[in-house]
């Protein structure tokens, strides 16, 4: 792990195995703590069927006295009724008791299989251990990132610094996610922390800005899950905040960059994927229309399988844009794959199809750019291809 991947000032973390997962080698409990009261905001799944931790945490943000988030993996605590809500509140109460803080200042996440009750005994024994192991080291940060994982193949961490009014401000974050990924957000969790001095309202607004440009711009198969959660803590330990427009922009950029790096890591870890796909929709009337077009392309199974087969099948991409619900004419569309123009103003171009197919086959990264002639708005989206390995992995997930 890079020495740059460290926690901001005033934050500690830990991660360990407590027994939610059967394999002792797989951590399943993570804790992130601010040593001082922090502004705390959260953004959650838009699925109407959502996990108990989402319901409990939604009630507690935004706030100005946030202290911690406790996270278990291996069990989503979703679709578990009143018992699930009791268990989620119990997790926050046990964590608050061990930390010596108010229960309302602790939020909670769970990720894993839906419809199973939490093993209280395992988690109850793990929380005091997690508190005792809290540290501000890179190793502790890495352990906490690993404790969040389910089907992920690697932990996802990011850290950025900004010089704000003469003070070094750090923004660091972790995320988990590899499948059931489809805007708005999906089976993904993220915790972003900063030692910037922000109000709860600023924290909430800056988090939403970042999420809309990152986690809401990724898709693996378009399935919005029950547990999606992104938190942002800001504890003011650096002594510097968004005191003017320049400082605000610097902090927003750092938060955006961390969120985007984590979001892209989720897509790069997509289950069974062979290709990482970056989609740019340019020249739209507004960002909303650009987003709608990009999402349809990213979610299109025929688009994704064409990429798996290294097939520059522009018809599938253009038709996906056409059914996005955005008003357009064929003559207003041009299309590029890996910077090769293959469709111009409503008609195919002459290009070396074999060479383009080879570039798609031989490179993990594929770029798609759909150029409209409507305006100046643009959106960048990230997705992956759809492989037989993805089908195999998800067909065997619970059995």
Question: How would you sum up this structure in a few lines?
Answer:
With 399 residues, the chain is α+β, with helices and mostly antiparallel strands. The chain has helices at residues 52-58, 81-99, 120-132, 138-147, 200-212, 245-268, 287-299, 301-308, 314-322, 353-362, 388-395; strands at 11-16, 29-44, 63-75, 106-113, 156-164, 167-176, 189-194, 229-234, 276-284, 333-337, 340-344, 347-348, 365-372, 377-384.
Write the layout of secondary structure elements.
Blueprint: E1 11-16, E2 29-44, H1 52-58, E3 63-75, H2 81-99, E4 106-113, H3 120-132, H4 138-147, E5 156-164, E6 167-176, E7 189-194, H5 200-212, E8 229-234, H6 245-268, E9 276-284, H7 287-299, H8 301-308, H9 314-322, E10 333-337, E11 340-344, E12 347-348, H10 353-362, E13 365-372, E14 377-384, H11 388-395
Parallel strand pairs: 3-4, 7-8, 9-13
Antiparallel strand pairs: 1-2, 2-3, 2-8, 5-6, 6-7, 9-14, 10-11, 10-13, 11-12
Helix pairs in contact: 1-2, 2-3, 5-6, 7-9
């Amino acid at each position: 792990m890079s020495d740059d991947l460290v926690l901001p000032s005033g934050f500690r973390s830990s991660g360990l195995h407590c027994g939610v997962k059967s394999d002792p080698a797989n951590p399943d409990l993570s804790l992130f703590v601010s040593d001082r009261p922090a502004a705390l905001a959260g953004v959650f799944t838009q699925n109407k069927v959502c996990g108990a931790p989402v319901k409990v945490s939604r009630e507690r943000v935004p706030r100005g006295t946030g202290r911690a988030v406790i996270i278990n993996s291996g069990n989503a605590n979703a679709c578990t009724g009143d018992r699930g809500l009791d268990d989620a509140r119990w997790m926050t109460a046990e964590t608050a008791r061990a930390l010596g803080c108010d229960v309302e200042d602790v939020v909670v996440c769970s990720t894993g299989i839906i419809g199973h009750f939490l093993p209280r005994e395992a988690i109850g024994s793990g929380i005091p251990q997690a508190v005792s192991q809290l540290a501000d080291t890179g190793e502790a940060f890495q352990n906490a990132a690993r404790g969040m994982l389910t089907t992920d193949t690697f932990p996802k961490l990011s850290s950025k610094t900004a010089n704000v009014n003469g003070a070094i401000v750090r923004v660091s974050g972790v995320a988990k996610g590899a499948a059931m990924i489809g805007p708005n957000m999906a089976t993904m969790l993220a915790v972003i922390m900063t030692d910037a001095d922000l109000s709860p309202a600023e924290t909430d607004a800056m988090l939403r800005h970042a999420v809309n440009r990152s986690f809401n711009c990724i898709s693996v198969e378009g399935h919005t899950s029950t547990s999606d959660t992104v938190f942002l803590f800001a504890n003011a330990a650096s002594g510097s905040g968004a005191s003017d427009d320049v400082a605000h922009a610097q902090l927003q950029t750092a938060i955006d960059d961390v969120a985007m790096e984590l979001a892209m890591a989720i897509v790069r870890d997509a289950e069974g994927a062979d290709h990482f796909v970056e989609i740019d929709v340019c020249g739209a009337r507004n960002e909303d229309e650009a987003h709608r077009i990009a999402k349809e392309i990213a979610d299109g199974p025929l688009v994704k399988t064409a990429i798996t087969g290294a097939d520059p099948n522009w018809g599938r991409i253009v038709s996906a844009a056409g059914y996005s619900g955005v008003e357009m004419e064929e003559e207003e569309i041009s299309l590029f794959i890996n910077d090769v123009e293959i469709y111009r103003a409503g008609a195919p171009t002459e290009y070396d199809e074999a060479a383009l197919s080879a570039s798609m086959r031989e490179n993990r990264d594929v770029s798609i750019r759909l150029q409209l002639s409507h305006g100046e708005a643009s959106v960048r989206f990230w997705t992956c291809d759809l492989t037989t390995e993805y089908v195999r992995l998800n067909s065997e997930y619970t059995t």
